[in-house]
Structure formats: C-alpha cells, structure tokens
Amino acid sequence: MKIYSYETLDSTNEFMKNNISKFEEYDAVTAETQTLGKARRGNTWVSQKGMALFTFLVKKDENSSIDDSEYLKLPLIAGLSVIKGLRKIENLDYMFKWTNDVYLYGKKITGILVERVENNFFVGIGININNSLPAELSETSASISEITGKHYDIKEIITSVIEEFKILFETFLNGKWEEILLEINELSYLKEKKVHLKINRAYFSGIVKNINHNGELEILIDDKIHTFSVGEVFEEKMRVIK
Fold it and tell me: How many domains does the chain have?
C-alpha cells in the first residue's frame, strides 16, 4: 500500500479513476483540499484543510464466488473500517449511519462514496479530523479535533482505516458477511429511532430496526417491516423540507 499525497485535487476519486494504471490495490490518493469533491446523490462534498480526504483502490476478486451484487455492501464495510481505524487512534463512541456516514455524539464526522469502473472500486472517504466546521454546519457536523481538543496525524488515520478495511474485506470474501453485519448493527446510529426516509419526492416514516443481509435498511411502518436499499434519512427531530 502506497499513499500519494497532493495539496489540491479536483476529486481524489476522479484523479484515481483517470490514472488507474499507476495504482495497485489499496494504494491511496489523498489531498489537503478538493475543488470538486463529490458526495452521494450528486451532492458536493465540503472540503477544508485539516480533513482526511482520500480514495483507495479495491479490485474485484476474480477467484471469489461472491456475486457482483454483493459488492454493493462495500460502503457499509468502509463505514465499519472508519470506526475501527479511528478507534485505534482515539477510542470514542463512533456510530455508523446507514448508508454511508459515521457519527460521533450525534454529529456527522465522515462521508463515504464508493464508485465502480469495470472491476475496480474506488472507495472515497472524507473524515473531519483537524478542521473547524463553518457555523452553518456546526449543528449537524463536527470534527474529532473540535470534540477532543487534540491534533491528529492525518496520514496515520488514513493508514489505519485502510488496514482495517483490508481485514474486513478479506473476511467478507471468505463468506463471513454476517459477522461484519452483526458488528455494523451493534453500532447503528439509527436503530430504534423514528425517522423520515426520502426517495425522490416520496417520504416514508417509521422506526428503524436493523440493516438486513442485503445491506438494506429495515423500517417499521404501521406494524410492518419495509426494506429500503436507497434513500436519504432524517431523524424525527429534524425538520424535513418538502
């Protein structure tokens, strides 16, 4: 694993995709800032110095019997990897919010975007580490440094997260997804919370239960479990603008 560091890139995901021939599996590209960072659903990722902004390469295992659809679970595996990697640096109560965020004390500290080109997966991660969030985001997001008052080695954190991903991904390829899923559900930020889930212009409200075997969110709505593979989730306490 090699880490290639840059001061500024448009997007670490795009840079790695456009230069794929230069990289081996688990190599990472990191930037101090991104000018066109991407989030899920086409949103723009807010970039600040002091964040861990990086993308690493994962290749489909041609010798594995795992079906292509199973790779849709990579964002969940990446989320657990972030939690495990961060715990080795600063052991706090990190939680996983379906489908691709990590929270700490009720605030978002990490976003994840996994993209695929042929048999290559680009795992893009942004973690609020040493940065100070702007006032308009401070109600919902925070950095680890803001919470602890400490300064962290960003490269050490990136290395720790990727090493944890390698371990979990090997476990996944060995057919032990249920072990990983059990740990993810134990760390579920949304479990037993009342939420509103938005898909396009449709809204669904209910109580979150588990993340199921397929990586879908189970929500109890009118005494019946409904499963969702996509959607934007809002906690009940948050005002949803339709």
Answer: 2
How would you classify the pairing of strands 224-228 and 232-235? unpaired
pTM passes above 0.90: yes
Q: What is the CATH number of the domain that holds 33?
A: 3.30.930.10
Give CA–CA dist 154/135, Å, rounded: 23
Q: What is the pLDDT of residues 63-86, one digit of tens each?
A: 766 777 788 899 999 999 999 999
Q: Give the contacts of 125 (CB within 8 A, at least 6 positions apart).
A: 52, 53, 54, 55, 78, 82, 110, 111, 112, 113, 161
Q: Are 54 and 12 in contact (CB under 8 A)?
A: yes
- Is residue 241 in some structural domain? no
- DSSP three-state, residue 31: strand
Same domain (yes/no): 111, 213: no
> The tokens 């009118």 sit on which residue?
222
